[in-house]
Amino acid sequence: MTDRLTRNRSKYWPDKTLHEIKLEEPKMDSKLSEDEIVISKPKKLKTSSKLPVSTKAVKSIELPPNWKVIYDNIVQMRKETPAVVDTMGCSHWADKNIDPKVSRFQVLVSLMLSSQTRDEVTYATMVELKKNGLSVEYIDNISTSELEAMINKVGFYRRKAAFIKKTANTLKEVYDGDIPSTLEELIKLPGVGPKMANLTMQEAWNKVTGIAVDTHVHRITNRLKWVKTKTPEQTQAELEAKVPREHWRDFNHLLVGFGQSICRPVKPKCSECLNCTICPSSTNKYLF
Ligand code: SF4
C-alpha cells in the first residue's frame, strides 16, 4: 500500500518530498478521534426545495486555510483520471451547431432528464430524442405517453415527461419558443430546481449565476469539511458565500468528475487521492 502511495505521490507531486507534503497537513478537527474518521454511508438526500437557502439558515464555517491546495490537487487528479462526465456530461448533451433556441431547449431538457440518472443514461436518451429533432414544437406536438416511451430509461421518467411537456407549452406560449434567460424565471418552470437552473444558465446562456450543487458536490465538500450541511441547497448557499467567484464556473464539473472517479459515494479511493493526508475524511491519512 505504501508503495502505491509513494507512486501516486511521485506522479502528482514530482517536485515535492514526502516531508514537504506532510507540512501542508492542516490541524485535525480536535473533536474527532482516529476511530471516528470513517467514510459514512451515503444518506438519501432530502427533496430539493426550489427556493435558494439563505446563508443565515445554516451554521457557517470557514474554508480551511489549505482549501486551495486541496482544490488544486483535485484539478490535478481530474487531469490525470478520466471521468464519465468528461465525455457524456451535460456539455455533451445538446447540439451546438443548430438554431440557438433549439440548442438552448435541448440543454434544458437534458438537465431535466439528468436528475437521479447516470450521465451515460442521460446521454443515450438525448441521442434518441435528438434523432426526432428535439425542439419546443416537437415536444409540444407529441403526447405525454409518446414522450414517456422515449425517455423511459431515466429515473422518474413519468414525472419528467409531464414536466417537459408542460415546460415546452409554457416556452411556446410565453417565451416565443426560447428558454428564459434569467435564473429566477428558469426556477419557476416545472421540475427545474436551483442546480438545474444554474447549469442551464451556464450551458445555454454562458452566464455563471451560482455554484451548481448535486449529490457529488454536496458529499465531497462535506467530506472535506468545507461545509457542514444537510441539503444541497444549504451547501450551495455556503459555498457561494466562501468560494471565490472565479472558481464557480468549473466547480460542478470538477467535483462531479472527482466524485465519479475517486471520491466515490461508497468506498472512495482514498489511497489514490492526492488529498489522502490532508482530507479530514480520508481513510488513509495515517499510512504515511
Ligand atoms: S481522501 Fe478520500 S474522502 Fe478525502 S477527498 Fe480524497 S477520496 Fe475523498
Notable features of this structure?
single chain; 288 residues; mainly alpha; Endonuclease III, domain 1; 0% strand; elongated; disordered N terminus; binds iron/sulfur cluster; HhH_motif; DNA binding; EC 4.2.99.18; DNA repair
Entry summary:
The protein has 288 residues and is mainly α. Helices cover 51% and strands 0% of the residues.
SSE diagram, text form:
Elements: H1 2-12, H2 18-23, H3 67-80, H4 84-88, H5 100-114, H6 119-131, H7 136-141, H8 144-150, H9 157-174, H10 183-188, H11 194-205, H12 215-223, H13 232-242, H14 248-261
The protein binds iron/sulfur cluster.
Iron/sulfur cluster (SF4) binds at residues 223, 262-263, 268-270, 273, 275-276, 279, 281-282.
Distance between the terminal alpha carbons, to the nearest Å? Answer: 10 Å
CATH architecture: Orthogonal Bundle
Which ligands occur here?
A: iron/sulfur cluster
The biggest sheet, with number of strands, parallel, antiparallel or mixed sense and barrel status, is: none
Describe the protein's architecture and organization.
The chain has about 290 residues and is mostly helical. The chain contains 14 helices and no strands. Helix 3 packs across helix 14 (about 250-260), helix 5 runs antiparallel to helix 6 (about 120-130) and helix 5 packs antiparallel against helix 11. The termini are close together. Mean pLDDT is about 80; it is low at about 1-5, about 10-50 and about 50-55. Iron/sulfur cluster binds near residues 262 and 269.
